[in-house]
Amino acid sequence: MEYAKLTRTKVMTPEETQRLKAAITEIASILYKNTSPEALENLEGIEKTVRTQMLSSVSPQIAFFLSNKQQAQIKDDLDKSRICVGELSITEKQAQKLGLEPRTHLSPVLEKCSLRLCANESYQNAEEELEALTGMKVGHSTL
Question: For residue 76, how many other CB atoms are within 10 A of its CB?
Fold first, then answer.
């Protein structure tokens, strides 16, 4: 399916926009308090810190749009999968519903990025490039 079709969203109401802005401001405040002063000395440090914090603390919490009821119904062993927005615990049933192959630890988008890098680089270099581009560390043996 075309990427543009997959990424379309509904327009938020003004109230939802305000709530989202308030939540983002609160998240930014918490992350700032938990950032070392050295990481804020230059733009590169800020970029890397924000990306790391987003991938580890924020994105995995909002990546799934499953309701609490759906999540409660799924009683299954969790498996860690790396996706472009961080690392996510996905049950076998969720993986099946999302079209992930068994024992796959990379999302389709992250896998495509990995394959493109591997085609042009050694696996070791691809590991380093993937981390530099996405912030996600994926061992060269997984690629």
Answer: 12
